[in-house]
Design goal:
Strand 18 and strand 19 form a beta hairpin. With 305 residues, this protein is α+β, with helices and mostly antiparallel strands. The strands form six sheets. Strands 1, 5, 6, 11, 12, 16, 17, 20 and 21 form a nine-stranded mixed beta sheet that branches. The protein has a four-stranded mixed beta sheet with strand order 3-4-14-13, with no helix packed on it. Helices cover 20% and strands 30% of the residues.
């Protein structure tokens, strides 16, 4: 039977300023969507993948195919045309997990272009805030001549600007099938990287929002459908979380409790009690839960070490 790996993650509570460099006047804005009828802030899967790729570079001796260069502000490539990718090559860990597309337009009229495409085995969802955005905006002022763009006129005065912020948690999910990878051992490495995920997107120089799991539900199953994405709900105004959508699916028999490995940073939280009542036995700290899941994925894939 084919093993599928699914997970849903919720971050710790914090002040998010994960804007994407867009402004309205002198206000830096957050990306938003309407979620269950109310405005929520959101972070793209692409931003999560970007942060994840940096961590994956440390997981294999060959590193990643593309590496972000902070000096040049560009990617450094080992194989920009993916020439070494193929049935006889394991390729790089980031290409294997995250996929790629290299397209070339037709060079002559009435001829077809070409494309070298690999669909991502590791699929990520968009991160959505756990609580609605109520419109918080803060006032800031850059110091005189802090940047060349801020140094207008004589540049002797502070430059005021506004920033949208959101005090909340984010939740996001992932799905992957280890057997679809060139090297199945990379599935466990990807899960370990998610467990270590720190800064994602945002106004990096000014804000830090920890994207590492405060709680994670991992499902190892033969069922090809995740069934647990966005399963966290806020409780106590977002201070804590609950998983009633998940426990209801267990009660209905759509998810078996023995398929789940749960990691939580607070083992005394009501969340843990509800999961135990639903029959989940593998509940640990976040890092121990990720390690246990990674070990089981490797055991199923026949990966040693």
């Amino acid at each position: 039977m084919t093993l599928h790996v699914f997970a849903n993650i919720v971050t710790s509570y914090g002040t998010a300023g994960n804007n994407r460099g867009e402004t309205e006047g002198n206000t830096t804005t957050l990306q938003k969507l309407i979620w269950q009828g109310q405005p929520h802030t959101t972070v793209s899967a692409e931003a999560i993948r970007f942060a994840l790729r940096r961590l994956l570079a440390d997981k294999e001796e060959a590193g990643t195919n593309r590496t972000w260069n902070e000096v040049t502000r560009k990617n450094d490539w080992q194989d920009a045309e993916f020439k070494d990718w193929g049935a006889d090559s394991a390729g790089f860990i980031d290409d294997d997990l995250l996929g790629f597309m290299s397209a070339e337009a037709a060079k002559e009229e009435n001829t077809k272009g070409s494309a070298n495409v690999r669909r991502a085995v590791l699929e990520m969802t968009r991160a959505v805030s756990l609580t609605p955005w109520t419109g918080d905006v803060v006032f800031n002022a850059a110091s005189p001549r802090a940047t060349a763009s801020a140094a207008k006129g004589d540049g002797d005065n502070p430059v005021p600007y506004m920033a949208e912020i959101h005090a909340t948690r984010y939740q996001y999910g992932l799905a992957m099938t280890p057997a679809a990878l060139q090297k199945p051992s990379r599935a466990a490495k990807a899960l370990e990287a998610v467990g270590e995920l720190g800064t994602v997107a945002g106004n990096h120089a000014r804000f830090l929002f920890d994207f590492a799991p405060d709680a994670i539900v991992i499902r190892l199953t033969n069922d090809p459908a995740p069934r647990l994405l966005y399963c966290f709900e806020p409780a106590e105004g977002g201070k804590t979380v609950r998983v009633s959508p998940l426990t209801k699916k267990m009660e209905a028999g759509d998810i078996r409790p023995d398929e789940l490995i749960v990691g939580v940073s607070d083992l005394n939280a009501p969340l843990v009690d509800s999961l135990r009542i639903a029959g989940v036995t593998e509940i640990h700290g976040v890092r121990n839960a990720v390690e246990l899941a990674a070990r089981r994925i490797n055991e199923h894939s026949g990966v040693k070490g």
